[in-house]
Each structure stands twice: as C-alpha cells, then as structure tokens.
Amino acid sequence: MKKLNKIVGVTLILLTSFLFLACGNEKKSSLKEIKTTMSMDIDSLNPYKMVSSGTEEIMYNVFEGLLMPSPSGELIPAIAESYKVSEDGTLYTFKIRKGIKFHNGNPLDVKDVEFSLNRMAGKDGNPPASALFQEIAEINIVSEDEIQIRLKEADSAFIYALTKGIVPDENAQELDKNPIGTGPYMIKQYDREQQIVLEKFNDYWGDKASIDRVTVLIVPNNETAFLKLLSGEINMLSRVDAKRLNELKNFNNISAPQNTVQIFALNNKVAPFDDERVRKAINLAIDKDEIIKSVMGGNGIKLETNMSPVMKKYVIENIGEKQNIEEAKKLLKESGHENFSFTIKVPSNYPMHVNTAQIIAEQLKEIGLNVKIETIEWTTWLSEVYSGRKYEATIVGLTGKLDPYAILRRYTSDYKNNFFNFQDKKYDRLIERAKKSTVDEVIVANYKEAQEILRDRQAAIYIMDPELITSLDKKISGFEYYPLSYINFAKMKIGE
Fold first, then answer.
1. Does 7 fall in a domain?
2. Which of 39, 99, 144, 460 is deepest in the core (most CB within 10 A)?
3. 329 is a domain residue
4. How far apart are CA 408 and CA 307, in angstroms?
5. Contacts for 308-311 with beta carbons within 8 Å, 24 or more apart?
6. Do residues 156 and 303 share a domain?
7. Is residue 208 part of a domain?
C-alpha cells in the first residue's frame, strides 16, 4: 500500500511538473514581441548624453520629459500635467502629474524634477545637456506638485528642450550605467554592439503598452538587416531601400516624410562658390525630380529651403523651381566661372548620398562642370567637413527638429558648426528676433523670412526630404510616424 501511494505521489509530481512546463511554454508562445534593428549602437544610456537620432528613436520609450512630442509635431504634456508661461517669456510654471512611478518602483516627486532640471542645466557641476539649458537662471520648487524655471531672457526655442528625460535623484551616480525612467518601456537587457531589449512597464501612468517586449538588434549592414526581415528573424525594419519594395509584398510598407533635409552644400567661402551666381547656376542645372526618382524610387519630397513640409507651421511655400540649363549657363558666364572642376566629399556609409552625388556629377556636365566624387568615412566627414570646413562641396542629410530654431540656426554667422560658411547679417537678426519673441505670429514671420534669404541667396542646394519607409509584419498595427526620430512602440499592437 505504501508502495502504491509512493507511485501515485510520484505520478502526481510528474503530472504537475508537466502541466507547469506546459503553462510556461504557453506563456512563452503568447509573448507579444517586436523584433527590429538599428544600424548603430545607442551612444549612451544617460539621457543627458544622448546625441544621435537613432538613440533618441528608441530611448523616447524609456525616458519621458516634462513634455513629449506628438505625431503632429506639437508638444504635449507628459510628466508635467500642464504649464504656463509668463507674458515676458522668462518664467515657466509646471504642474507635475501625480501617480507617476519610476522603473525601479519609486514614486516620482517634485524633487526628482528639480534634480533632473539642475542636471540638464549643468548647475550641479556637469556639462549642460544642451546649449538651451544654459539660458536657465534659476529653478524653484513652488509646492509639492509645482516647479518654476526662470530664464535669463525670453527664448522661444527653450520649451522644445523639455523633452529631455526626468530621472530619479537617488540614481544620480548611476546615470551612465543604470537607466531608470518613467516611460512605457524599461530596459531589460543591453549588450553593447549587439542588442537592446525593452520590456513593458506594467506600472506606467498612462495607456499601457500592448507589446510585451521590443528587441532591437545592432546590425550595421543594411543588406544583413533586410535579409533578417525576409527570413522572419525580425518583424519590423525601418529605412527600407525603396528599390527593394518589390521584394516586400508580404509586408505592410508604410512611408512618410521624415523631416530630414538632403543638402548639396557648397562652401560659401571657397571660390567659385563664394559667388551667389555660381551657386544659383548649379541649383538650376540640377534635376531634383530625376534624383528623387532614381535614388528613392519616387519616395521623396522636393525642397527649396532647409525645412521639410512636415513643419507645416513654419515652412515657406515652394515657388516651383525647375531645371533650366540655359539660365544656368548664362549665370556661369556672367560670373566668369565656366568649365571648372570641383570635388564632392560624401560619407561612404550613406548610399543615398553617394548615389545622389553620382547623378549630380552627370547633370552638371551639361553646363560644362567636371565633378569628382570622394567618398570618406563618417568620422572623417565630421572632422574635415563639419568641424574643419575643409571642403568644396558635400552631400549630407540634416535631421529635422521640432524646434525651427534648431534647424535654422545652422546658418547663423556665429554658429560654430555653420559648415556652409554662410553669412548674412539680416538673416542673423531674423533668427535672433524669432528666438527672443514671445508673440507666435512674430516668431513664424521671422523664420519664414529667414528661409526666403536661404533660398534667394542659395545658401545651399536643397534636394529633398527622403520619405522614410518602414516594413512591418502584417499582424503588426498602430505604427505612426513622428516628425523626429521616435518609434512609439507603446501604440503598436500585434494581432488585435
């Protein structure tokens, strides 16, 4: 009898174990996961040291600021439930939302906000998170749910900086190693140069994510990433080559302008590009429609200034520029610069820019110009072109921002990275006036007039905003484009 009982007991244990494993497998199989790639590793786990758009694209899911971007490009309340700005534009008052928890389980309070703002502003001995935070004169706690920021002077661009993440003050010494935010996802695992894994945060204050896990593989090679999508190893791929869409008929392919401006930059201080007539002639000789068709399969929006149509509020209307070879030749003859040669330096890791350079070289033969193409490493481009300004011409994509000042200040005379070497005193005044104004109509009018100067003086040649193409498994829904680098995984669903 004891032997029988023993056998029955063992049997029950085995059955229980089997059921447990079965339940575990069932749980595993029901995990809702998005698997995707990024071409470069994130540059930091510290929200105040993040620089690249690729890093922001992922980490906006982990860290939230007082405000956050919306798909329309507007700023919406996040950690701040509401805010108001004084008439003189120097005092910002934020009401902090109640019931927010950090990923470590601790509640967020106004002291955490104060700490984070001081860190952003560099008032704790660390470098400021950006130049805009240097405008902060003081930060004061008003009550347990209210905090004020006073600026040294009015700055219409400042509000856009407040998407920087709020972090817990107790994590002050671990910001580089231990990322703790308030977003809908928290970092579960990070293997440098390999992958970053996000896990749904169940105590998120807002609408909770439907996707349980997001795995982002670091895949520098575009072809490798594409093959991973085709094989099913990943179920989402951003920045798909338009020429490969015919291979992706079994996927949902979504495209939209990405608020990036592809620029053919001519060094304004190097002869003959210091002559406006030469710059205008080259612009007239280029067939932008052909570039968009050949390079992007037609998936791009032709531009005339350094701002994408995505920035609806601030962008100026196109005047309908068209290729005009005869007018281009006439301008070159007037300038006294005919039949010259020059070199375009292009970052080699951007096939789109290399391909664009090749087409431009062919098109400029029609007006007698001989163009050489020099492909260089990205780090070399940054040192020689962006910082050193040692170049004649280059092609690059400049990432758009929500803040028009961040876009247009690139051409101001005193901007350290004005690699165009463009200078215009009236332009400088317009940008400064827009920045310091508190009247929306004045801000918009000044930014638009500044863009007209860029176009009239041909500060650079603006090619297109290349449409970003994202391919997803057909079971995935809810994907939305933002006018900046941000994939909002929390709004996405699988099979619902």
1. no
2. 460
3. yes
4. 8
5. 308/257, 308/258, 308/259, 308/260, 308/261, 308/400, 308/465, 308/483, 309/257, 309/465, 310/73, 310/257, 310/258, 310/259, 310/400, 310/465, 310/483, 311/73, 311/259, 311/400, 311/404, 311/407, 311/483
6. no
7. yes
Range of the domain at 355: 260-467
* Range list of H helices, 258-324: 276-285, 288-296
Retrieve residue 57's tokens: 């694209």
Please check whether residue 395 is in contact with residue 466, taking contact to mean a CB–CB distance below 8 angstroms: no
Residue 228 shares a structural domain with residue 292: no
The rounded distance, in Å, linking the Cα atoms of 392 and 294 is 25
CB atoms within 10 A of CB 213: 18
Tens of pLDDT along 49-100? 988 888 999 999 999 999 999 988 889 999 999 999 999 999 999 999 999 9
Sign of CA dihedral 337, 342, 347, 352: positive
Whole-angstrom distance, CA of residue 167 vs CA of residue 175: 9
pTM of the shown model: 0.81
Amino acid present at 408: L
Q: Coil, strand, or helix at residue 217?
A: strand
Give start and end residues of each alpha helix (H) in 88-153: 110-121
Q: What is the pLDDT of residues 430-446, one digit of tens each?
A: 999 999 998 999 999 99
What is the CATH number for 91? 3.90.76.10
Verify that 360 and 269 share a domain, yes or no. Answer: yes
Residues 399 and 343 in one domain: yes
CA distances from 220 to 171, 350, 371, 381 (A): 32, 12, 30, 18
Cα–Cα distance measured from residue 311 to residue 484, given in angstroms and rounded to the nearest whole number: 11
